[in-house]
Design brief:
Strand content: 5-15%
Strand order of the largest sheet: 3-4-5
Number of helices: 10
Number of strands: 5
Length: about 210
């Protein structure tokens, strides 16, 4: 969802940085990038390492308030997502969201952005014991759709999500957003494409060959 369908990673990072400045913390931009694709636990741990537990909780509360206003206004789509979803719907291909975001916020963001009707299921970090890179949320998505994991294609922007998809026995295609794949990520030997339009072309070619 975040960074793949919605241009939310930039919004999240902006809110986190704004909250840090408001509260008087000088934190590097590289810290926000480390949080991409992770869940609440990762964000809290990274912040606690930098500024301590109490200050981390205060910063997270403030950033969440800032981000709630952004999310409720409707976060911009990533280029090509509506075209891809309409293409999948027209062909009757089952579709699920598998996100590290908690369920209440995930549902609000998808609804405000007008994307919720495109999906048969929404699976979130609220629904599983372990967040990405554990495979739990992807395995839940496959089970909810009634599809074997080996028959699932995962579209992901983050290395954390790619690792989760591979751990689930699925086929990931990465569409990087703010994090360019480094050598360790490329060594995973999955497909990496520059845009959702390119991901759609891969799917079209696959369906054409059966």
């Amino acid at each position: 969802m975040d960074g793949l369908m919605l241009d939310s990673e930039r919004a999240i990072n902006t809110c986190m940085a704004s909250a840090a400045r408001e509260l008087g913390h000088a934190l590097p931009d590289s810290l926000w990038l480390k949080m991409i694709g992770g869940g609440d636990g990762l964000c809290r741990r990274l912040l606690t390492e930098q500024i301590g537990e109490v200050a981390a909780d205060e910063l997270l509360l403030r950033s969440e308030a800032l981000y709630d206003a952004v999310a409720d206004a409707g976060i911009d789509h990533r280029p090509g997502i509506v075209e891809l979803l309409e293409w999948l719907v027209a062909r009757g291909i089952p579709r699920a969201v598998a996100t590290s975001t908690r369920r209440p916020l995930a549902m609000r963001k998808l609804d405000a952005a007008g994307l919720l009707p495109y999906f048969d299921a929404v699976c979130t970090s609220s629904d599983v014991p372990r967040p990405k890179p554990a495979p739990d949320v992807y395995l839940l998505a496959a089970s909810t759709l009634g599809v074997e994991p080996g028959r699932c294609l995962v579209l992901e922007d983050s290395p954390t999500g790619v690792r989760a998809a591979l751990a689930a026995g699925m086929t990931p295609v990465q569409v990087p957003d703010m994090l360019e794949p480094d050598a360790a990520v490329r060594a995973l030997a999955h497909r990496i494409v520059p845009s959702l339009a390119d991901a759609q072309r891969l799917l079209e070619a696959q369906l054409a060959t059966g």
